[in-house]
Amino acid sequence: MSGLVDLSDLDVFERGEAWPLFDVLRAEQPLHWNDEPSPNKGFWSLTRHADVVTVTRDEATFSSELGGANLEELDAEQIDVRKSMLETDGARHWALRRLLQHEFTPRGLVGYEVFLRGLTTSTLDAALVKGEFDFVKEVSADFPIRVLARMLDVPDEHTGQLIEWGNRMVGNSDPDYADVLADSDESEEFRLLPFRSPAALEVFEYGLELAAQRKGGTGKDLVTKLVNQIPEDGVPMSDRDFRNYFLLLVVAGNETTRQAISHSMKALIDHPEQLALLQAEPERIPAAVEEMLRWASPVYHFRRTATRDVEMYDQTIKAGDKVVAWFASGNRDDRVFDDPYRFDVTRTRVDHVTFGKGGPHFCLGNQLARMEIRIMFEELIPRIPNGLQVTGEIARVRSNFINGIKKFPVKV
Questions:
Q1: What distance in Å separates the CA atoms of residue 390 and residue 411, rounded to the nearest whole number?
Q2: Bridge partners of 389?
Q3: Which end of the chain is less crowded, N or C, counting CB atoms within 10 A of the terminal residue's CB?
């Protein structure tokens, strides 16, 4: 059965049918070779929780820098031009990470609780008064991007544009989102841009304008922090470094939390007894956030490149091979989670890998995401005593990278 699994088939992910394939691989072939259409050369998949942890912690053996973090195979020029903190290893990665690390710690975020609660209230007021609305458009996409706008210190009226840019880039394999599909001949014109997306040019221009305005300033926003610091390794950030860092903030600051909120709401609709429990005992919500993150798994995978030959499961990963850690599969591993396909807000010790797990690329914004999700459901759950009802087709993003929902029609 494992020989029939093809995790490069986007139709499988658009239909939400990847989960049984992950089950097969974890059971039968935890290290699985996946052929790909030319010009790609194929990749190894690791699907067990323990192996995902091992790969993402060992950057000396499994590099983000050699080939990038996604499945696209890049040449040396593409790797150099596109490189962001996400595609950087070692001391330089840590130096770039520490530029903003404090802003995303619990201490750095302490002043955001009141703001986030007020923002959540206004988002929910605007959506729920309509009675019938698209949950993604009105709630889960609106809320995180308005938080990001605050952290970047840009006007609220720019949030729609920030959302659109994120959709166009991360949705580069979805015809509803992409300007140019990443696997099309037309995309070759944009091969040096992140995601092969022309939207990246617009994000670069926007970010560099902000940088020029704030150079030499003393503001507390993320842009001012970036342009007025020298990384601790003593190597100043180039324009390329800044624009790629800024683009990463735009994407990461919106997409993952947005998808986590969407999938969590769908889970509560599909499991009304869990919603009823949180309504009766709202003090459970903070702990329930970890189960929501496990269940949602908003990023299916990150890719690494082997720096040397590695023996695993009686097979040899060759130096230079693509190695894909499937975070979503790790979050359904029954070696770690009892009855992993049960959504259970009372689950304890939820050892998910949604943000990575202790490795160098552990999600910088994990504490902010947890806070956003917690406050969203602390405010939303009391307002929907009878829950929400799905009123139409829920459409998924056509991607094996982002586990996304793009349309989610509901009514109160």
A1: 7
A2: 411
A3: N
Tell me the two tokens of residue 277: 């429990």
Burial label, 400 (beta-carbon count in 10 A; 0-12, 13-18, 19+): buried
In the sheet that 409-411 helps form, which strands lie side by side, from edge to edge? 132-134, 409-411, 389-390
Q: What is the pLDDT of residues 13-55, one digit of tens each?
A: 999 999 999 999 999 999 999 999 888 899 999 999 999 999 9
> Which string of b and e fits 18-32 if b means at least 16 CB within 10 Å?
beebbbbbbeebbbb
> Residue 261, exposed/middle/buried by CB under 10 A (0-12, 13-18, 19+)?
buried
Query: What is the rounded average pLDDT of the residues 137-145?
Result: 90
User: Could you count the other beta carbons within 10 Å of the beta carbon of residue 383?
Assistant: 12
Q: Give me the sign of the Cα torsion angle 117, 123, 124, 129.
A: positive
- Provide the residue count of the chain: 412
Contact predicate 378/119, CB 8 Å: no
CA end-to-end span of the chain, whole Å?
A: 43
- Cβ(278)–Cβ(377) below 8 Å: yes
The domain total for the chain is 1
CA angle 374, 378, 382 (to 5 degrees): 155
CB neighbours of 346 closer than 8 A, spacing ≥ 6?
Answer: 277, 284, 288
pLDDT at 194 over 80: yes
Residue ranges making up the domain that contains 83: 2-411
Pairing of strands 43-46, 322-326: parallel
Backbone angles phi, psi at 254, to 5 degrees: -120, -55
The CA-atom distances, in angstroms, between 158 and each of 116, 161, 162, 283 are: 18, 5, 6, 35
The packing angle between helices 239-252 and 255-270, to 10°, is 10
Q: Is the pLDDT of residue 357 over 70?
A: yes
Q: Side chain identity at 71, as an amino acid letter?
A: L
